[in-house]
Design brief:
Layout: H1 2-16, H2 45-52, E1 57-63, H3 77-88, E2 94-100, H4 106-110, H5 113-120, E3 124-128, H6 131-135, H7 140-156, E4 160-164, H8 179-192, E5 196-197, H9 199-209, H10 221-242, H11 247-253
Parallel strand pairs: 1-2, 1-3, 3-4, 4-5
Helix pairs in contact: 3-10, 7-8
Signal peptide: 1-24
Protein name: SGNH/GDSL hydrolase family protein
Keywords: Signal
């Protein structure tokens, strides 16, 4: 119980109040993502069709606590994703809804998913999962089966899917083993032909480059906001590239 509580507390501190350095005066953080970390062979065909035919892009984010920033409305990465897409695709109507699956394993999150998909009718589902399963040491095979079942339900509902894996946290790596869940999400993405946004590798790259200090013991809301801004912008680029659309051409067609 103490170990599980320590892991949950460590992740909560990272998610709700990522900390460390003083804020850069520039509102746009320096958090470049190498092209290979945003490359995918999987295509978001329904997203591409909606954008090219001037239909609304309805995005549903299935998230957890790390999808939010406490007391900071509009600064969590789903809303920064929406803002970035609207900026890059001014001719498009981009709608976003979020369903939080707090403290739920992938298997638990899939329960009731059909009703959510029926009600929301999303063009694109972005499913962030894996962190809670890792903290609970859930069976990796059962995790893979649950994620696969969730993706199948999303496809059956007519939606494109992006999987987002665990967040990177050097402070909790000694307490949890992320590798089985990272590997299994990669397997599911390949089996179902869906893009995997490798949040874990991207955040680790930022930490190693010195863009952010995820090992800092002093929590701070400012760093959380900057990280979420960077995740949102990187995810927007990922969505556009996977949809195989040219933002310049979409502006001309307006």
């Amino acid at each position: 119980m103490r170990a599980g509580f320590a892991v949950a507390l460590g992740l909560s501190l990272l998610v709700g109040a990522l900390s460390g350095r003083a804020a850069a005066e520039d509102a746009t953080p320096a958090c470049e993502v190498p092209a290979y970390l945003l490359a995918t062979d999987s295509v978001l065909s329904k997203v591409g069709d909606a954008l090219k035919n001037h239909r609304p892009l309805d995005i549903l984010v299935l998230g957890s606590r790390s999808s939010t920033i406490m007391t900071a409305d509009g600064t969590a990465y789903p809303w920064r994703l929406q803002a970035a897409l609207r900026e890059k695709l001014p001719a498009a109507t981009v709608n976003l809804a979020m369903e939080l699956r707090v403290k739920k394993t992938a298997e638990e999150a899939v329960a009731g998913l059909g009703k959510i998909l029926e009600d929301r009718k999303p063009t694109l589902v972005i499913w962030q999962t894996g962190t809670y399963d890792a903290t609970r040491s859930a069976d990796p095979d059962e995790f893979r089966e649950a994620v696969g079942e969730g993706v199948s339900q999303m496809h059956k509902a007519g939606a494109d899917v992006i999987l987002i894996n665990l967040q990177y946290s050097p402070r909790t790596e000694t307490m949890i083993s992320p590798s089985p869940y990272l590997d299994n999400m990669r397997v599911v993405a390949q089996e179902h032909g869906v893009p995997l946004f490798d949040r874990f590798a991207i955040m680790r790259q930022w930490n190693e480059n010195g863009d952010f200090d995820f090992f800092s013991p002093s929590p701070g809301l400012d760093l959380a906001k900057r990280v979420h801004e960077c995740i949102g912008r990187a995810l927007a680029t990922f969505v556009i590239d996977a949809a195989r659309v040219n933002p310049v051409e979409l502006r001309i067609q307006r």
